[in-house]
Write a structure and sequence with these properties.
Blueprint (H helix, E strand, L loop, with lengths): L2 H9 L5 H13 L3 H14 L4 H13 L3 H18 L2 H17 L1
Helix pairs in contact: 1-2, 2-3, 2-4, 3-4, 4-5, 5-6
Length: about 100
């Protein structure tokens, strides 16, 4: 699905954390970091327990050079993933938190 179709879904009232994650990832692929981050932040606002959105936000921040923000997002995502029992995300984010934490 293209970005325009995703945006239309939001404007038609079908907004959701999953839609925002999808849209944020689409904008990230287009190298529109600012818009991608806005949508990913909205995803975690809609659903603070959405660990995949926290992970995506952290990756975007890390690629943009904002290590502190990335570490904070990864930690939020790790807490959400643990609470949800999403062990794949837990393992990935533990590695990312440890790696960024060691770089401090």
């Amino acid at each position: 699905m293209d970005i325009e179709a995703l945006e239309r879904m939001i404007h038609s009232g079908r907004d959701s954390a999953m839609l925002r994650l999808t849209l944020g990832n689409a904008y990230a692929r287009e190298a529109d970091r600012e818009t991608a981050e806005r949508h990913l932040r909205e995803a975690v606002t809609i659903d603070p327990q959405y660990s995949a959105a926290w992970r995506a936000l952290g990756r975007l921040q890390e690629r943009g050079g904002d290590r502190d923000a990335a570490l904070a997002s990864y930690r939020e995502g790790l807490a959400a993933a643990r609470a949800n029992g999403d062990m794949q995300v837990v393992r990935e984010l533990e590695v990312r938190v440890r790696r960024l934490g060691e770089a401090e």
